[in-house]
Amino acid sequence: MNSIRKWLPPMSSLVAFEAAVRHGGFSRAGDQIGLTQSAVSRQIAGLEDWLQTPLFDRIGRRVRLNDAGRAYADDLLPALDRIRRASARASARPSQSALRVATLPSFGMRWLAPRLPQLTARHPDLVIDFAARSQPFDFGHEDFDSAVHFGVPQDWPGVAMDFLFREEAVPVCAPAWLAAHPLRAPQDLLHVPLLSQSSRRDAWPRWLRAAGVDASALPPGPAHEHFLMLAQAVAAGAGVALIPSFLIRPELEAGTLVIPFARPLSTDQAYYLVYPPDTLAGPLAQFRDWMVEQARGA
After folding, report:
1. How distant, in Å, are the alpha carbons of 51, 53, 66, 76, 199 from that of 44?
2. Kind of pairing, strands 223-224 and 194-197?
3. How far is Cα 131 from Cα 142, in angstroms, rounded to an integer?
4. Which residues touch 126 (CB under 8 Å, ≥6 apart)?
5. Are 234 and 248 spatial neighbours (Cβ–Cβ below 8 Å)?
6. Which of 85, 126, 193, 255 has its CA 20 to 30 A from that of 35?
7. Contacting residues for 77 by C-beta, under 8 A, at least 6 apart
8. Domains and CATH numbers, the chain
């Protein structure tokens, strides 16, 4: 037997096995994959013969997945899912000029999306699919060519990384809320609702300490996953939030959000464009060069 195929059972048997596991029996499995119950039974019997081990216990006319079958399913089903996803992605790629880019949601909406017409004007053949991701991931297991990351380089080892820019987070609230809750000094913030972004709950303690305020007894406040959700909440009068100023320029210019204290919070964290090593060529190189150029004027 060819060594490449030595440990690859017939795909039809694997499909029947997967269906039987997912649907708890041969009859319902057959309904799902268009086979009779007896045909499913024959496929699985063939797989058991190929593996030289039973995968189901037969109890009268009923079948039940045994320990060997359960262990096999735990390894096999995720692999079949990955094959399906990889095949769908490969068939969906419109051209060799297509890229898939993961971006932080608020960054993508407020910084990246408004600039995309400029990218299209420069590279009209470049097609980019964007998806939201908030945490580092393994490029080997996700179908992305690149991603936008916020943090420090050590957060995402094993990737190539280009610095984009740092941010400054500012305290903001609604003007009507501020009129009803006057804030005369940073100390006053200890007595009002302080909202946070869910992955940066330490931002308020750091801001208060930098302002000379003891934040050791600061209770946890409400949190939102995305900065634009946070902006909406404080614009509606929920309290005060620390938000990167570049994300809320429209609200600041329109006056729907105001800054009670001009004390921005800066850290050693920054935005980076990341991608697998040794992949910077063609469309990805075009996108990377454009991103770095845009970030210089951010």
Report:
1. 10, 11, 13, 14, 47
2. parallel
3. 11
4. 97, 99, 119, 120, 283, 286, 287
5. no
6. 85
7. 18, 21, 22
8. 11-92 (1.10.10.10), 98-166+269-296 (3.40.190.10), 169-254 (3.40.190.10)
Q: Which residue has the tokens 């990384």?
A: 161
The residues that bridge with 186 in the sheet, in sequence order, are none
Between residues 277 and 90, the one the model is more confident about: 277
The rounded distance, in Å, linking the Cα atoms of 269 and 202 is 13
pLDDT tens figures, 98-123: 899 999 999 999 999 999 999 999 99
Q: Above 50 in pLDDT, residue 1?
A: no
Could you tell me the CA-to-CA distances from 176 to 199, 250, 264 in Å, in that order?
A: 28, 18, 22
Residue 48: both structure tokens together: 């058991």
Q: How far apart are CA 204 and CA 211, in angstroms?
A: 10
At a CB cut-off of 8 Å and minimum separation 6, what does 225 contact?
134, 197, 198, 199
Task: Give CA–CA dist 13/19, Å, rounded.
Answer: 10
Q: What is the DSSP string of 171-202?
A: EEB-HHHHHHS---SGGGGGGS-EEEETT-TT
Q: Give the C-alpha separation, 195 to 205, whole Å.
A: 12
